[in-house]
Design a protein that fits this description.
1 helix, 10 strands, mainly beta
């Protein structure tokens, strides 16, 4: 007998549940011919050299927010330090939980208005 589960998952307190993007959509550069590229290097302002990117920061989409979250909203994109992520596997989906204060940046429309409240 197979039971159909109808459970929901919600983060508690001021935590945020995110789903990571495989590639950072904000790093994509489009060439004149329409080819979309991502780069594994960056210009290091300290040395002036091209250095390899380490994945210390990742980008994802907010899937749910806890009741005490002040700024992050469902549907926002976020940049997060990987050291603050906790993996969650639920119903075959792979999410990460992070405390709202460990989010580096929010990426969404109308943030100026949201922060005035």
């Amino acid at each position: 007998m197979i039971m159909e589960l109808k459970k929901e998952i919600m983060p508690l307190y001021s935590t945020v549940m995110i789903e990571l993007y495989e590639e950072n959509p904000y790093e994509i550069h489009e060439t004149e011919t329409g080819l979309k590229l991502t780069s594994g290097t960056f210009d290091n302002p300290d040395t002036g050299n091209k250095d390899m990117k380490d994945r210390f920061m990742v980008t994802g989409s907010v899937k749910a927010v806890g009741p005490d979250c002040k700024y992050a909203h469902e549907g926002d994109d976020v940049m997060v330090d990987v050291r603050g992520l906790r993996p969650i596997i639920f119903m075959g989906n792979y999410y990460f939980q992070v405390a709202e204060q460990n989010i580096i940046a929010l990426l969404a429309d109308d943030l100026t208005e949201r922060f005035k409240k």
